[in-house]
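Re: that chain you flagged

S.,

Sorry for the slow reply, it's been a week of failed gels. I finally had a moment to sit down with the sequence you sent. For the record, here it is as I used it:
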Amino acid sequence: MSLTVGVVGLQGDIEEHVSAIDLALSRSGARRGPILVKSPEDLRRIHALIIPGGESTVIGGLSSIKGLIPSLRERIDNGLPTLGTCAGMIMLAKKVEDRVVGKRNQALIGTLDVTIERNSFGRQRESFEADLKLNIAGADRFRGVFIRAPSVKSIGPGVRELARLGDAIVAVQQGNMIGTAFHPELSGSSTLHEYLISLVPGQNAK
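Prediction finished late last night. Pasting the structure tokens below so you have them in one place:
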């Protein structure tokens, strides 16, 4: 199958996701590779999407300027398999708060029925790694890289937990959407990227 995965290419861990997707695609046997998504026209060319970690306010602001937010919302609502990591999960969320300053007003896609708390584990200097158990096949042990990481404070009825760190929810899935508080592109594993590809219609039928 010819498969194109888009990475929102405005700010953040773009190259790392491109490398992880290249590896995941080679393992899945799919042809073609990732492209950078910077416009609504780019969105029409892809079968799955990654919104990378970075600065969620910057990614949201640039997406708004480029007219991407409505197009992202429409494609994701219509079933586009999407992985949002760290800032990308914040972008997907319906509601966002900050551990220090409380409720945040920022540009959001708003398709993932969760409330996110930004900076749940502290600032940059408190970044860390931890072993996680992901609730997906073949991911009993996954190394999570947490950098100024958020957490999921509450989930809607259609959302399932994929991972916890202590009492904190750090990965979720709602239909075609996956959100992680950590950076799977920095883990050395393409497990979550392969899982994203498996959500593309027709992939499980190979």
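What I noticed first: The first helix runs from residue 14 to 28.

Talk soon,
D.
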